[in-house]
Amino acid sequence: MGDVFLNETYVGSVDDSHGFVANFRARRRSGEVGEEANIYHDKDQDYIYIESGPGRVRRPLIVVENGKSKLTADVVKKLKSKEIGYDDLIKTGVIEYLDALEENDAYTCFDEKELTKEHTHLEIAPMLMFGLNTGTVPFSDYDEPGRLMRGQKTVKQGVGMYALNYLQRKETDRNLLVNPQKPLVETYVYELLKFDTHPAGQNMTIAIMSFEGYNMEDGLILNQSSVDRGMQRSFYYKVHSEAEIKYPGGLQDRIEMPNKEIKGYRLEEDYRLLEDDGVVYLGQYVQTGDVIVGKVSPPKFIEEIEGFGQMVNMNIDSSHSLKEDEKGVVSSIYVIENSGGEKEVNVLLRDQRLPVVGDKFASRHGQKGVLGGLFRQSDMPFTENGIVPDAIFSPHSIPSRKTVSHVMEVLAGKVAALRGKTVDGNPFDGEKESDLRDQLKEFGFNPTGAEVMYDPKTGKRMKAEIYVGSLYYLRLKHQVENKIQARGTGPVQLLTRQPAEGRIRGGGLKLGEMEKDALISHGASLLLKERFSSDQTTALICKNCGYLADPYLFNYKSKCPICSDSKFEEIELAYAFKLFMNELRSLGVNPTFSTKDRFFNN
C-alpha cells in the first residue's frame, strides 16, 4: 500500500502504487488530468508524490511508448504543413513537461536510433543538454564539459551592444563595442536570443602560430593597422551623480556656480568648464581634477566663529570633481527629481577605449588571454594571397585544453567568409567537418585550412604551413584603464599609518611573502628595506628595563615611567609593530627589549 502526497500534504493511500502512477500518466497525456501536474513514485518507501504548485522548473520531452517515439513522421509532416501546432502536441500527449521530481522516474534517450523498450522519453534535440549560454558555443560537442563552462562564463563578459537605449539608462558603468558583428558561425540559440540586435564581438582573420614571443602562454597579437581602422574599439560610459540633499533644520545643498566667499573655494580655473547653473557643458572633454558639477553645502555647524569673534554662517564648497584615471567627453546631462523629491544631476561621460597591451580578449570556447603585442600591418606575416591576419594566436594553448571546437570554428569561419553565408555550428547536428573541408577545396584552398605564409622581415616563405581562418573574438570588460594602479606617496590610514587601501583612494599595492621572495630572487633585497618602511617611526627603549616608549606622545627622555632611569636608546621600527606592543600592554603583557650597537669590536 502506497501513501499519496499532493503538494507535500498527505491525502490518502492506494493499493497498487505502480498501477496508480501509470494510470495517472495515461490520463494526463489524454487530457483528463491537467498537464501542469507531475508525479513521482519513491519505490524504496512506497510513497507517491504529486506536484502541481507554482515555481517549479519544467522542461519538454517527447513521450516514448514500447521503445517508439510518439513524434512520428506523420506528426512531423502535419507540423510542417501547419495542420497542427506545438500546443496540439501537448494536448495529444506527444510531448509532456517533466519537473525535477518526475525526472527521477524517467529514462531519457538523446538519439532516436538508440531507443530501447526501457526508455520512457526522447530529447527533442541533443543540444538541449546545454544551457542557454553554453548553447552559444559553436561545435560544443567537440569540447570537454569543464572548458565549456569556462567558455560560457566568458561570453557573459563580452563587450557589445547590450541595449539600444543605453544613453537613457543609469547603470554605474558600461561598455559598448563600436561596430559589433554577428558571428559567421552560429548556433540555433543565437536566433532564439535575437543576437542580431545585440551582438558582442567581431569576426577576425586569425593565424595560429608563434610570433616574436609576444603571444606566449595565452597572449594575443593584434594588427595595429586593423585597430586603427576600428577593430575591437569600444566606449566606456560612466555616470556621475550629484543631488541637492536636504538636512534637518531646513538646510540643503545647492547645485550652482560656487562664489569666492564660500569656504574651500578652489582656483577660478577649476570652475572654467561650468555653465551658469553649475553644471559642465555638453561635449566638453574633462579629465582628472576637473569640476563637472558645482555644489555648495551648508556648514557642518549652524554657526562658526570667524574674525573678531563674530558668529557667521559659512557655506562649504562640495563640488564634484573627477578622481584619478577618470576622463572622457560629456555625452549627456540629465536633471531629474529623485525618489526623495530632491534635484539630481546625472552627467554621463564617454571614454573611447582602443585595445592596449594588457586588455583581455577571448573566443567563445574558453580560450581567453591578454593582448601581448600590437604590430603594424607591414610587420605582420602574410599569406600567399597577401592576406594579413588581424590576430595571431598561440598553438600551444590548444592541446592541453582540448578545445577542438576553437580550431573547428577557424575552419568554419573561413568557409562562411568565402561563401557569404553563415555556418550552422549547432552541436551534434550542425554542418559536418568533412563537408566544410570539401567546400574549402572548391574555393581553391587547402582543405586542411593551412596556408603558406611569408616572414615580414625577410620576405622568405615560412617552413611550416600556418592554420589561417576566421574566428569570432570577444573583447572582455576587463580593461587595463579600469585596473591600472601605481602610487608613490599618498594617503595613509590613521590607525596603522600604513598606505590606504583601494585604487580609487590612491592606495598602495600590497607586498606579501611571495612578492618578497620574488624580489630577493632578483637580487633586489635592498628594495625591500624601502618597500617595508612605509610606516617607519622612531621609539625610545630604556637601557635599564627595556621599556618601549613613543617620544612623540610622552616626554620619556627625562626618566623611565617603570624604573625611573634616564638613559634611553632611540630606534627605528614599524609603527604597526609599536601598535601591536601597545595592544599587548592593554592585555596586561609588557614586552621588554634590549639594544646593542650594530657595529662592535671583536
What are its keywords?
Dna-directed Rna Polymerase Ii 140kd Polypeptide, Chain: B, Domain 6; 602 residues; OB fold (Dihydrolipoamide Acetyltransferase, E2P); alpha+beta; 5-stranded mixed β-sheet; extended; 18% helix; 6-stranded mixed β-barrel; 5 domains; 35 strands; 26% strand; 12 helices
Outline the structure in words.
- With 602 residues, the protein is an alpha+beta fold.
- The chain folds into five domains: 2-124, no CATH class; 148-164 and 178-232 and 357-475, Beta Barrel (Dna-directed Rna Polymerase Ii 140kd Polypeptide, Chain: B, Domain 6); 235-353, Beta Barrel (OB fold (Dihydrolipoamide Acetyltransferase, E2P)); 485-531, Alpha-Beta Complex (DCoH-like); 536-586, RNA polymerase alpha subunit dimerisation domain (DCoH-like).
- Helices cover 18% and strands 26% of the residues.
- The protein is built from twelve helices and 35 strands.
- It has a six-stranded mixed β-barrel with strand order 12-28-13-26-25-32.
- Helix 7 (404-419) packs parallel to helix 8.
- The longest helix is centred in the last third of the chain and has 16 residues, at 404-419.
